[in-house]
From TrEMBL:
GO biological process, one term: nucleoside metabolic process
Pfam families: PNP_UDP_1
Lineage, broadest ranks: Bacteria, Bacillati, Actinomycetota, Actinomycetes, Micrococcales
Keyword terms of this UniProt record: Glycosyltransferase, Transferase
Cited InterPro entries: Nucleoside_phosphorylase_d (IPR000845), Nucleoside_phosphorylase_sf (IPR035994), PUNP (IPR011269), Purine_phosphorylase (IPR011268)
Job of this protein: The purine nucleoside phosphorylases catalyze the phosphorolytic breakdown of the N-glycosidic bond in the beta-(deoxy)ribonucleoside molecules, with the formation of the corresponding free purine bases and pentose-1-phosphate. Cleaves guanosine, inosine, 2'-deoxyguanosine and 2'-deoxyinosine.
Organism, scientific name: Terrabacter aerolatus
Name of this protein: Purine nucleoside phosphorylase
Quaternary structure note: Homotrimer.
Length: 277
């Protein structure tokens, strides 16, 4: 039996072809053949898209090749085409992402990034909720990602394709974000596999090797974005202090609560940054 070409896990399928198929469906459903910037909204960031501009079209993930319904509470199972103020430009806003721990494969994890490129985007903003290693970063603090450490033992790049990751998180975009909010700090994001939270010993390991933030997303997407030539802005929302940094137990409810409390600041930050891109 011939497998569907939309099966990203079929080794005979070119994942970039599936991304092109997805972009074609998005163009049809949104009525525009080009988007300018993409945003991936992680835990705690779900309410921020409303502040970027008017939502002109909403597309259910299940209707787009290669995408799936949201698997995590606090994420939206749809994508939106949003007007960026009155600039005439469009943002493609993904209300959820596929996490590595879902077991769908790395191709599914980075499918949104590749679709954004196929849809015409030149910049992608990757957001997440994370644990902070710096006690000065209270829950609800946004932190720019300067660099990352990928502890998943996987890469989205297949074959002998040697992609330079120097300045992966575009310095110009970080500077732009600090023009919007001068109080923004920055740090190194460490991606673990998940879905369990890190142990205190693992958090200390992350600190020793140079990490400031720990989470379960973003780095694989950023690598895929660099491969296709997208500029990358990464922003973490510290939703809790990482295990062992404080004596409080970790919970996803805490992540959502911190995101709701910080929604206005984060939304304004994203709206202003996207408006200046």
């Amino acid at each position: 039996m011939t497998r569907s070409p939309r099966d990203l896990n079929d080794p005979s399928t070119d994942p970039f072809d599936v991304a092109a198929d997805a972009a074609a469906v998005i163009a049809e459903r949104t009525g525009v053949d080009h988007h300018d910037v993409a945003l991936v909204l992680g835990s705690g960031w779900g309410q921020t898209a409303d502040l970027i501009g008017e939502t002109l079209a909403t597309v259910d993930n299940a209707d787009v090749p290669g995408f799936h319904a949201a698997a995590v509470a606090g994420h939206s199972g749809s994508m939106r085409s949003v007007a960026i103020g009155d600039t005439g430009r469009r943002a493609l806003v993904f209300g959820t992402r596929t996490h590595f721990y879902e077991g769908r494969g790395v191709r599914s994890v980075v499918h949104g990034v590749r679709t954004a490129k196929a849809a015409g985007c030149s910049t992608i903003v990757l957001t997440n909720g994370c644990g902070g290693l710096n006690p000065a970063w209270a829950p609800g603090t946004p932190v720019l990602i300067r660099d990352h450490i990928n502890l998943t033992a996987h890469s989205p790049i297949e074959g002998a394709n040697f992609v330079d990751l120097t300045d992966l998180y575009t310095p110009r975009l970080r500077d732009l974000a600090r023009e919007v909010d001068a109080d923004l700090d920055e740090g190194v994001y460490v991606q673990f596999r998940g879905p369990h939270y890190e142990t205190p010993a693992e958090v200390q390991m992350a600190k020793v090797i140079g990490g400031d933030l720990v989470g379960m997303s973003t780095s694989l997407e950023a690598i895929a974005a660099r491969q296709v030539g997208l500029d990358v802005l990464g922003i973490s929302l510290v939703t809790n202090l990482a295990a062992g940094i404080s004596d409080q137990p970790l919970s996803h409810a805490e992540v959502l609560e911190a995101g709701q409390a910080a929604a206005e600041r984060c939304g304004r930050l994203l709206a202003d940054v996207v408006g200046r891109l």
